[in-house]
Write the C-alpha cells for this entry.
Amino acid sequence: MILVQVLMVGAVVVLALLGLRGESSHRVSASKKLAFCLLMVSVVVAVLFPTLVAEAAQVVGVGRGTDLVLYVLAMAFGFYVVSQYLAAQRSRNELHRLARRIALVEAAERYELSFANHATNVERDPEA
C-alpha cells in the first residue's frame, strides 16, 4: 500500500467517525447514515482497488474510472444541494410560523384579548 492510500483511508475513517458521531448525528435518519456508510466503504474500496473502479466504468459504458467517480460525485453533490435547500426551506417555514405565533401572543397580551388561546390553537390546527 502506498502512502497516499494510507492517508486517504485514514481521512475517510476520520470523516466517517466525525459524520456518525457528531453532535447533530442523532437528528439524521438511519437511511441517510446507511447511505453515508456505503459511500465511505465505496471510497475505501476505490482507494485500495482502483482497477475495480476502472472495470466498473467499462461495465456501465464510461471510458475511465476517474470519469465514473466524477459523475458519481456530481450526482451526490446535486442530491446534497437539493437536500440542503429543502431543509433550509423547512426551517424558514418553521421560523415564519413561530414568528406569527409570537406576534399573536404578544398582541393578545398587549391588548388583553381573551382569544389568545384560540388563536394559538388555530395556528396548530387549521381546521379548528
Remarks:
- The mean pLDDT is 86.
